[in-house]
Design brief:
By secondary structure, this protein is an alpha+beta fold. It has helices spanning 34-50, 57-70, 81-92, 119-122, 144-151, 207-221, 241-251, 298-308, 371-375, 413-418, 424-434; strands at residues 17-18, 77-79, 94-97, 100-105, 108-114, 130-134, 137-138, 158-164, 172-177, 179-182, 186-191, 195-200, 228-232, 256-262, 269-272, 287-291, 313-316, 324-330, 336-345, 361-362. Strand 18 (324-330) and strand 19 form a beta hairpin.
């Protein structure tokens, strides 16, 4: 794996722009840092001379690099060959494994979200789960890359995950059979009443074009005019910034899509509509965008852009809250730093960091039997150790959901199942569109 293939995507919103590192672009080291470097070298020498076993130089240097980066934020990291494969996966969405988006939190592997339709999703792994053992071996405290490498493997082979799910008294085991994760980034379906549902599972290559193709197909399948469109971004962990901009541009014909602001020159940029697709699709069709706590980064860019331009009604649960951009800084032909270099902002100037995107209508996923227990422990960016702080200084309490019971959302998962409703959020979104006219919802002024 070389750095060159990563040029196929200008940026990932987990995420990365690729820029060269030259002497001119390197920040000047504060002269006061000299004694600190001396401490580092002294520790290196003491370990080499006195540790109980011989220690490889490369191991010590890698540990020092990892330590520096881990002190910054959860998304900055040192990348070598195996890590580049994970970045390539975000672009192509093609590998053998379980289909999980995970982070390391306080030494534990935590699930941001399973990819929809993946082996992990079908086995019942959920957002917010902790994976503590793999095939009975404790993985707490191991490097995230090592845990991910063990979860990947040849399609058809199985692995046992020991999962701690907040809200349950005891851990439990799940056997998952690995598969070839060739995710369909975009799928679509035409529902009763000429309501189209376009599901975007992740922002890999050509997502914007795929959504355009899905909209064209829906129009052909419909009998008469389309009466509504649902853009489902739930449990979408993000991916390419380019594709987030392209997807937003499909539905907008003017104005800002997203901006990013950084400290270094060249890291403050803005992205406007009409740069990828000319005009806008579904002009007279009301749109609902579904999000949840697993909707992150690129998903939040799209939701924020359509919300601020009043082009769509955002429905579901508050999103993950990853509002930072990572840049790839090459170190050699097959190593690089993935460094957080900017925050991004919605067209109205709101930072997504920590707070995420707040839905216009909050709709709980009542179809989830563990909803009441898991909602207390939902994982978001603000829960990650060392996360960047929202520049406006919001307190966690200011971002809490309204706890007042809503009479619309009182049915249990068992009662919904008896009514044949498997996905309450999607069902509620479709009902909302069927009850309204195009002039009453989610249309621009």
């Amino acid at each position: 794996m070389k750095i060159a293939p990563l040029l196929r995507s200008a940026a990932l919103v987990t995420a990365v722009a690729l820029i060269p590192v030259t002497t001119a672009s390197m920040a000047q080291v504060d002269g006061r840092a000299g004694p600190e470097f001396a401490k580092l070298f002294t520790v290196f020498q003491l370990i080499k001379a006195n540790y109980v076993e011989s220690v490889d130089d490369q191991k010590l240097v890698r540990g020092a690099i990892d330590g520096m980066l881990s002190s910054l934020d959860p998304h900055s990291a040192y990348l070598d060959g195996s890590d580049f494969q994970r970045v390539e996966t975000l672009i192509d969405g093609n590998y053998s494994g379980l289909g999980l988006s995970v982070v390391m939190e306080d030494g534990a592997v935590k699930v941001i979200s399973p990819f929809r339709g993946s082996p992990a999703d079908k086995a019942g792994v959920k957002s917010g789960d902790y994976i503590t053992h793999l095939d009975g071996d404790l993985i707490y405290g191991t490097h995230l890359d090592a845990a991910v490498a063990r979860m990947r493997g040849k399609a058809g082979t199985s692995i046992e995950l020991t999962i701690f799910r907040p809200g349950r008294d005891e851990p439990f085991e799940v056997d998952v059979t690995r598969g070839v994760i060739e995710l369909e980034p975009v799928t679509h379906a035409l529902e009763a009443g000429n309501i189209g549902v376009i599901t975007v599972n992740e922002f890999s290559a050509d997502v914007g074009a795929d959504v355009f193709a899905s909209w064209t197909d829906l129009q052909k399948e419909a009998i008469g005019r389309m009466n509504g469109l649902i853009l489902d971004l739930r449990s979408n962990p993000g991916g390419s910034l380019d594709e987030a901009i392209a997807l937003s541009d499909l539905f907008l014909d003017k104005g800002r899509i997203v901006s990013q602001r950084g400290r270094a020159r060249g890291e403050t940029l803005s992205y406007d509509s009409e740069t990828v697709f000319r005009g806008a699709i579904a002009r007279e069709v009301p749109i609902v965008v579904l999000i949840n706590a697993g909707s992150a980064s690129a998903s939040e860019i799209v939701a924020g852009a359509l919300q601020d331009h009043r082009r769509a009604l955002i429905m579901g649960e508050r999103s993950f809250g990853k509002g930072s951009v990572q840049t790839l800084l090459p170190l050699s032909r097959d190593t690089a730093l993935k460094l957080t270099t900017a925050r991004y902002f919605t067209p109205a100037g709101h930072s997504v960091q920590e707070g995420g995107i707040k839905p216009d209508i909050s709709v709980p996923q009542l179809s989830d039997p563990d909803l009441a227990k898991r909602s207390k422990y939902t994982l978001r960016e603000s829960d990650l150790r060392g996360h960047l702080i929202n520049e406006i200084g919001l307190e966690d309490s200011d971002m809490e959901s309204d706890k007042i019971a809503d009479p619309r959302f009182q049915l249990t998962s068992e009662e919904l199942e008896a009514k044949g409703i498997e996905d309450f959020q999607l069902h509620y979104a479709m009902d909302t569109l069927r009850r309204t006219t195009p002039s009453a919802i989610a249309l621009r002024d």
